[in-house]
């Protein structure tokens, strides 16, 4: 029987409170006696701290306390890094700097005051005496002998070197018929820039000895464990609540020093302490994304079949590791082959320290970098061999019956039909018509470009064996005596709409109205265990846990109902709030059976009373959603300005639970991926000063910069989970960036332009136009 | 300094420091936390409210400048029983994800529809130039506003 | 996000405002719409000890025509100018410029007087006021004067206003017949300010040649300027593409051109030329249409 609710466009449960301004984000939380915290931060990228004078701050009006790095030494643990990479160097990363600072914006001291204005005033009065040290911001310079070493105790600036190799390189390298194409590609540094900055309210109750923390986080359970460790509090005394979270995009998949200091201050002062990050702090001191240099080399047969790929990755990690900093570029290596069955691979990833803020997860986290590399390369190969970009891709796709497909990178792709999404894309975009238009315009001296990108991504993270701290997810379903259902999830959605998706999943299994299900998440006292929301895992892994818990409930209710109705459990159907036989002759209300289970008057033998179940779902593999995108761009030959004229996307994220929400995820992802290609870049100067420190400088895309996105979805289910869902949170970001760059390079092809680095700001385009015009 | 305001129809009088920003006055003094703060440079529009009927960025005004003014925040645009067509549109068309920019977006859209009841998609996008959203890619917001425009324009609205 | 403390003054009339300004000297700042000043105060890049809010001086909010001139009160908002039907008819360059400023909310609150007095090198108004050969009224306790726009913008964030003078009005001539206008701008991708903004006002003679052209440029140098070399090169010329291009080549001549993350000086000079030519083309097209 087809589901009446899965796959349906259903309005979100989250929205009524949010469209009325009645949700509660961290800064909306007010507690009696609450104090406010502000930080003094380093103005130097690399310097010894000679002294920190807090006297003026202490005597500033409203100040309750000033906390320095010296004070917390030994009392508050270090900022943790969970990445497990062999031989990884992990520098000490205190919550407040002592002795030296290694990037601009590094917290040095915290002021706690009665009001946020007074806290800011006092923080500005903290005097730090610095002795500047040589600064290194360029990771290649950081690798050179004689470079300043940021953490001298670690020897040099190399945090790790990881190699991944597969296939038979001897054979490849000795095959003289192969063409070798080389290119350096840059994945520039970006700011996640969620609209809500970070924030935390820490409330230590001295009586109960409990620490309650409201944090704008994607991982309340992990945060709880880490804070307990940092503060030396018994974990059961520690509660973390992620209230409404105003976007994260990976940047809140972390534990930050400021969170630790807020908790420390609350425990010390016995009062609630609030810290709300300003936008400047957010751009400076919330993790950044991307920042890789990729030197790539491909080996191609004359017929266009790509047989080998080598890539040397230099990943700029910044000054310290945040939670997953070094792990992110290793995902690039894992996905470097994209959706092509290339039999030989070699990737060397070097993580390098520089005097900048740490990089870490940002929407896509390592995979957009990989997709950019492989998709730019495929276009270069097509061009070199004078083949159409679509034809070349078709030639290198594995056929759908080859799945599950083992790649030489060590991953196994679950299911795919790359041909199908690409064909559909070419059709809905009118690709051949566009090529004709392009030809016509070229004759008029106009530059129209078509850019393809066919991507595959790795998500539903992930099997615990491949994750630093568990890749399962927790879900629970509880039926109340009234027949209303409560769902708990260990994920921590923050805009993805999972209160709706999860309710659809539970309602589907239990055959009850969607409105009868309420979903809770984000509170570690309410949801016993959990991992969190990241890596496009929430529906595929978290949703499956709920599905499985609901199945247990269903089984139990069927047994109870069958006992009452005198039929076999297998004969019962759950639909429209009833549990009934197929012919409807025998039936009980869902609530009636729930009451039966809970009041436990006449339970069948061997059935425990109560009606609650939970599941820890452990996926056996990642999932691999895929898709095909096409960008159409126009280039103003006089100024280099680029107009994105059309954008088409066909995405396959497996089973779609709610098509409206899937569209929303795709659109948002596209905006961020296009943003990287065209406008966004987080820039430091050579002194380590951030040049893009406000939203007046860092270009978050605006509504009028985008065309209407023409999107479609296809459904190739995954066998990895019973829902068949793969995940969609990052697909748009991963697929779109190379499509844009390919389109612009394609537009400029008549001039002989082979490559342009992102972001494709007008000046860059103008310069290359000028250079090729004079050449 | 003493100021008098009428917020969402309610008169109030408060003693405020001159440097208190209107957005902090609304959030911390009046307790209306639906108005958000997303940047420090008057760019993101999360703090948009209506002051004397016009959309303004409440982070770029001092509370004292609103003395004697009438302010409408997201909390009073509609109510549980009857949402404003824009709120309905945002719900119907999935015009929000994390919801942080949403109150400001809705009030900017309110301003747009007051001045241009039947905007084109391009005009809608232009009308949102003062509001950033990092989640939606804006397309569903455009649809939400189209929905509202149509609803407001229809006779049974 | 949080400004430093200041004392707030809300004068009831212009005399009081001017007196307060004189009294506080460098420590006092006029607050008009606040959309140039308040963001700087929030970043603590500006920290005046005294703010003199002109909010009560509602008689500085007007747009009127007299003696072939348009006069606009300093506290008139960008939106009021953008939507003024009088201006759309008599001086359409002003509404066309207004709609490119900031965003809807900024235009609702920001004022032409505040923007001109702040004199941001990438603000839009200076280009238009220069191109229109406008004048700016400055008043203190005892006197009032009109400053030609060409003398008003002195340097980066510096105007010809005296320490005790309040900017009270702007006046520009009504656009004559056979004239055309255009304001073209390349928006900074983040701030929305002008990376280059060119305001052009042209007048055709009976032979449909260029009687005069005036061009105001913003975003390019430390202050907005009139591209006089462009203007001179066009006087009496036929409005051919070739003539326009040759003239526009002088758009950034003699200017110490800005350079930033998004546009080097070289590129900005180039943009100034292209945008100047395009603005002239558009203005001429409109002049021909009349």
What attributes does this structure have?
heterotrimer, B: 157 residues, alpha+beta, Ubiquitin-like (UB roll), C: 290 residues, Uridine Diphospho-n-acetylenolpyruvylglucosamine Reductase, domain 2, Uridine Diphospho-n-acetylenolpyruvylglucosamine Reductase, domain 3
Q: Can you put this structure into words, describing what you see?
A:
- The complex is a heterotrimer of chains A (775), B (157) and C (290).
- Chain A has 775 residues and is of the alpha+beta class.
- Chain A has 20 helices and 28 strands.
- The relative contact order of chain B is 0.16.
- Chain B has a 5-stranded mixed beta sheet, with helices on one face.
- In chain B, helix 2 crosses helix 5.
- With 290 residues, chain C is an alpha+beta fold.
- The A-C interface holds A 116-117, 120-121, 124, 278-280, 638-639, 641, 679, 681, 683, 691-692, 694-700, 761-763, 766-767 and C 1-2, 4-5, 43-44, 186, 189-191, 193, 261-264, 267, 270-271, 274.
Helix count from the secondary structure assignment of chain C? 12
Q: Residue ranges of chain C: pLDDT <50 for 5 or more in a row?
A: none
Distance between the termini of chain C: 49 Å
CATH architecture of the largest domain in chain C: 2-Layer Sandwich
> Main β-sheet of chain B: number of strands, strand sense, barrel status?
5 strands, mixed
Described by its quaternary structure, the protein is heterotrimer
- Spatial strand order of the main sheet of chain B: 2-1-5-3-4
The gross shape of chain C turns out to be: globular
The number of strands of chain C is 14
Largest interface summary: A-B, 57 and 59 residues
Mean pLDDT of chain B: 96
Output mean pLDDT of chain C.
96
Quickly describe the structure.
By secondary structure, chain B is an alpha+beta fold.
Topology:
The complex is a heterotrimer of chains A (775), B (157) and C (290).
Chain A: H1 15-19, E1 35-41, E2 47-53, H2 55-58, E3 63-68, H3 69-72, E4 100-101, E5 107-113, H4 116-123, E6 127-132, H5 139-143, E7 158-166, H6 169-174, E8 179-190, E9 199-205, E10 210-215, H7 220-231, E11 238-241, H8 257-269, E12 273-276, H9 279-285, E13 289-300, E14 306-318, H10 327-334, E15 344-353, H11 367-384, H12 389-396, E16 405-406, E17 412-413, H13 418-429, H14 431-443, E18 447-456, E19 473-479, E20 485-489, H15 498-510, E21 517-521, H16 538-565, E22 572-575, E23 578-581, E24 587-589, H17 590-599, E25 612-617, E26 626-635, E27 642-652, H18 659-678, E28 709-714, H19 731-747, H20 762-774
Helix pairs in contact in A: 10-11, 11-12, 11-19, 15-16, 18-19
Chain B: E1 2-7, E2 10-15, H1 22-29, E3 48-51, E4 54-57, E5 70-72, H2 85-92, H3 102-115, H4 121-127, H5 139-153
Parallel strand pairs in B: 1-5
Antiparallel strand pairs in B: 1-2, 3-4, 3-5
Helix pairs in contact in B: 2-5
Chain C: E1 7-9, H1 14-24, E2 28-31, H2 37-42, E3 50-53, E4 63-66, E5 69-73, H3 78-82, H4 85-90, H5 93-98, H6 104-109, H7 112-118, H8 125-131, E6 135-139, E7 144-148, H9 149-152, E8 153-155, E9 158-159, E10 166-173, E11 179-187, E12 194-204, E13 210-218, E14 225-226, H10 228-234, H11 241-248, H12 265-289
Parallel strand pairs in C: 1-3, 2-3
Antiparallel strand pairs in C: 4-5, 5-10, 6-7, 6-10, 8-9, 11-12, 12-13, 13-14
Helix pairs in contact in C: 10-11, 11-12
